[in-house]
Amino acid sequence: MSASSTLPTVSGLDLARYMGRWYEIASMPSRFQPSDTTNTRATYELQSDGNVSVLNETFKSDGTLASISGKAWKNDPKSDAAEFTVQFWVPPFLPLIPVRGDYWVMDIAEDYSYAMVGQPKREYLWVLSREEELGEETYKALLDKASDAGYDVSKLKRTKHLPDVGKKDTSGAHRDGFWWYFKGLFGGNSGS
């Protein structure tokens, strides 16, 4: 399949079931996503207006939490396709510029235990799981689907999940949004 072909997406995604915490298993990170971190995760919460609040978090080697908040919405509320737009404000410490991207759910487990998210240009890809680990057989099956959809899966980077990192309540933790933005803007991604 060529990169210009339509990206296959899930039909009939149950958005309420999709909400909650997801752990990044592997990614082709965006330029705003730092690469030298561990325990990367996303938390989604359905809002009363039908939009989704997004909180992306990752941890630096010293344990400092870096995060960025945003929102997502369905591209066409009447469509059955799981095609969303996500928006973050940058820099996160002084939100001035909205940055938008595609968030298309390409695959979802029947029990919503894992998902694969991409975008039509095939520049970014995320493998997500409700747990910090995903079985190798499942992971390889997702890579095969991504490859069949036109992705160069050799660009995927596995995400490390270290024991005890991010296990404490982080609601009051230092959120270094400047670091997230700065590292992404000035070359924090060795894989992109």
UniProtKB/TrEMBL annotation:
<dbReference type="Pfam" id="PF08212">
    <property type="entry name" value="Lipocalin_2"/>
</dbReference>
<dbReference type="InterPro" id="IPR022271">
    <property type="entry name" value="Lipocalin_ApoD"/>
</dbReference>
<dbReference type="GO" id="GO:0006629">
    <property type="term" value="P:lipid metabolic process"/>
</dbReference>
<dbReference type="InterPro" id="IPR022272">
    <property type="entry name" value="Lipocalin_CS"/>
</dbReference>
<dbReference type="InterPro" id="IPR012674">
    <property type="entry name" value="Calycin"/>
</dbReference>
<comment type="similarity">
    <text>Belongs to the calycin superfamily. Lipocalin family.</text>
</comment>
<feature type="domain" description="Lipocalin/cytosolic fatty-acid binding">
    <location>
        <begin position="13"/>
        <end position="160"/>
    </location>
</feature>
<dbReference type="InterPro" id="IPR000566">
    <property type="entry name" value="Lipocln_cytosolic_FA-bd_dom"/>
</dbReference>
<dbReference type="InterPro" id="IPR047202">
    <property type="entry name" value="Lipocalin_Blc-like_dom"/>
</dbReference>
<dbReference type="GO" id="GO:0000302">
    <property type="term" value="P:response to reactive oxygen species"/>
</dbReference>
<dbReference type="InterPro" id="IPR002446">
    <property type="entry name" value="Lipocalin_bac"/>
</dbReference>
<protein>
    <recommendedName>
        <fullName>Lipocalin/cytosolic fatty-acid binding domain-containing protein</fullName>
    </recommendedName>
</protein>
<dbReference type="GO" id="GO:0005737">
    <property type="term" value="C:cytoplasm"/>
</dbReference>
